[in-house]
Amino acid sequence: MINKTLFLTYVYLFIYILLSSGVILYNKWVLSPKYFNFPLPITLTMIHMAFSGAVAFLLVRVFKVVSPVKMTFEIYATCVVPISAFFASSLWFGNTAYLHISVAFIQMLKALMPVATFIMAILCGIDKARCDVFLNMLLVSVGVVISSYGEIHFNTVGTVYQVTGILAEALRLVLTQVLLQKKGLTLNPITSLYYIAPCSFVFLFVPWYLLEKPVMEVSQIQFNFWIFFSNAICALALNFSIFLVIGRTGAVTIRVAGVLKDWILIALSTVIFPESTITGLNIIGYAIALCGVVMYNYIKVKDVRASQLPIESIPDRMTKDWKFEKKSSDIYVPANTDDYDGSSGGNGSASDMKIDEETPLVSSSRLSHIGRTQLTNQYATGK
Question: Disordered: where is this region (predicted)?
Answer without folding.
Answer: 335-355
